[in-house]
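Exam revision sheet. Question 4 asks you to relate a sequence to its structure. Input first:
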Amino acid sequence: MQESIFNIQNEENFTRVALEVFRHQFKNNKVYRSFCDLLYVHPSDVTKVEQIPFLPIQFFKIKKVLSSLDEVKETFTSSGTTGSIASKHFVTDIKFYKESYLKAFAHFYGDIEDYVVLALLPNYLERNGSSLVFMVDDLIVKSKNSESGFYLNNIDELANKLISLDKKGQKILLIGVSFALLDLIEKHQFNLNNTIVMETGGMKGRRKELIRNELHQLLQEGFKVDEIHSEYGMTELLSQAYSKGKGVFETPSWMRILTRDTEDALSILPTGKAGGINIIDLANYNSCSFIATQDLGKVHQNKSFEIIGRFDNSDIRGCNLMVL
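Answer key, structure tokens:
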């Protein structure tokens, strides 16, 4: 199945594998099976991807969402806000995650060994269980470059290294949480020519929340780069989407974005209509691959997508099946 998931070539492939994954998770995931039963949805009635039920993402806060009886090898947790319940993603086969992020990075950015990876992820490093730190740590190792590494509070050292390496023509991936990247440009001036600046979102209470356009404008001016790249991922997923500018994201072939009606959570909207973001992540084979998030967005004809906001309340409107 791992080979089938990561070698999807076209829509026919995707549909076939997605339906197979749905049948596997319906049979082996108690939480997801109960959810589907409440909706009176059975695999025998499902012939299209749009008919597959999407599990509300809040279930990762209150249930053990697993489609495997194998031993849990990694538990990824969300940061959350003070007093909130963290999501937990139980991973039985870490190879799925590694293959997902390595293949996706290679697809969008090329060979990781061409880059120095500089990571500015203070809030993630300050806690355990971050799937983002796990991924970036592996990318740092895979870069095979002694200059690659994490930075916590030593942003002066990071700034000096960034300026020096960029001037030498070294390709650099600077990946950072939004507030930390803003801290960096407030303290130092840059004029980068060989660096990809990638934000992973999140002010985490450290700064006033900014809309993406405002944030990217500040970062573009501060780093003197043409575009700001973005990574879109979450604790509950094993795949990421990437934007090379203007907030337009693309997914690897085993990942899809759909939108649902904000007043009817079970209704999938046509392409181009803004609504709640539903994610298909086939790499999540041993957990749940069909997740209804709290993000709002819009999908374009070429399957790229934009995030335009989040639901105002903590529950996803239109779905009253939150407690099994």
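Marking note for examiners. The two ends are 29 Å apart (CA to CA).
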